[in-house]
Design a protein that fits this description.
Blueprint: E1 2-3, H1 8-16, E2 27-28, H2 34-37, H3 41-46, E3 49-51, E4 57-59, H4 60-68, H5 73-82, H6 88-100
Parallel strand pairs: 1-2
Antiparallel strand pairs: 3-4
């Protein structure tokens, strides 16, 4: 899991993820070689990337679903629901709303603000 180390909301959220019992490594987009990992640097500032062990990269709500898929059964079920045909568009919009407003959410600061796409 890669998050924006310049964003207080992102760092606060990333600190909570291990409590879910998921099996992932976490780092910031500023600490890793994004190009080597196949991560789109511009997209990574707007949508959290998750690099799968096989090298595939998911972003945004699909990244979060992939993270949940590494956890206990109840989180794996949530992951499947999030990416199911009827829920996927809703999860995508919810993620984008959160990302667009992260500077206003708990832990957010002006440095968390991102330009709308």
């Amino acid at each position: 899991m890669l998050n924006d180390g310049d964003c207080g909301f992102c760092m606060r959220t990333a600190a909570l993820v291990p409590r879910l019992g998921v099996d992932i490594d976490a780092s910031t987009i500023q600490e890793v070689d994004l190009q080597r990992l196949g991560v789109d640097a511009e997209r990574a500032v707007v949508e959290m990337p998750y690099v799968h062990p096989d090298g595939r990269v998911d972003y945004g709500h699909r990244a979060f679903a992939a993270i949940l898929a590494t956890g206990p059964l109840h989180w794996r079920v949530v992951s499947r629901v999030m990416t199911s045909r009827p829920v996927d568009p809703v999860a995508r919009r919810a993620y984008h709303w959160i990302a667009a407003n992260r500077s206003r959410l708990p832990g957010g600061t002006p440095s968390c603000s991102i330009e709308p796409r």
